[in-house]
Design a protein that fits this description.
With 316 residues, the chain is α/β, with parallel strands linked by helices. The chain is 44% helix and 12% strand. It has one domain: TIM Barrel (Alpha-Beta Barrel). The protein has a 9-stranded parallel β-sheet, with helices on one face. Helix 2 links the parallel strand 1 and strand 2.
Amino acid sequence: MSLSLSQMAEAGLALNAPLYADVPGDIAVSFEFFPPKTEAMERTLWESVEALTPLAPSFVSVTYGAGGTTRERTHATVARIARETPLKAAAHLTCVDASRDEIDAVARDYWEAGVRHIVALRGDPPRAGEKFTAHPDGYASAAELVAGLKRVADFEISVSAYPEMHPDARSPTDDIDNLKRKLDAGATRSITQFFFEPDTYFRFRDAAAAAGITAPIVPGILPVSNFAMLNKMASSCNTAVPPWLARLFNGLDDKPATRQLVAATVAAELCRRLYAGGVRDLHFYTLNRAELSYAICHMLGLRPVEAAAIPQELAA
């Protein structure tokens, strides 16, 4: 990867000064949530939404369970965000176990609810260990889903990207070609699966650029303090967990506060290294908790704004 002079200067600053000294906060952030299953989880979710709203995120997204298992809860959560907050709400939508007509109907419901942004995904099979099989009358890929959504309405569309290759891809080149098909079908940007080393992102970004991809590739950041959960999530999406990360969490099973500090430090340093390489847009997988994401954003110089000062274009 070649750096510009300004990026080289920034990289030198990151190496030779306190990492977070006077970082200007010139970043855009977005946050991902999942629909709550219980009243207690719903309270936690809305406390997190309220805590992160003052950071004026570009958008907040809500995930969609395999096979549409959270369809109603996802719709209710997204609609409430669009209705009750100044935030731009994005809904996840997948191809799994649904016909084109069913998916198009869900998309029209979102449009009618004021939602203008969809995160379009092929989706994982509803049962672990199975391979994805398209519905006989459904969309066979995320690229087809993107094209179908654009026919329903003029949605802004985000898609996924895999810096360490999608588990079903035949090769890294095949995976990047698939990403290009999704973007060419009408997607605005891609958001990466989480990763833990900055070079993983930079190598992928350079390979995508070499393949003719010009749309933004936003790094997905997972600040997680439960290492067992992390391993489970990583194994399902082909994300490498570095040995040094395992060693950092070793011995902390019964020390949740320490795990929080370690998790925040690791994720914040990753974000700082990405910033040094020119990244100015970050997407946080919050797991419905605000503390770690808020702390990292603060360390990167982002500060809360008054509700009245949140740009009107963030309204759904």
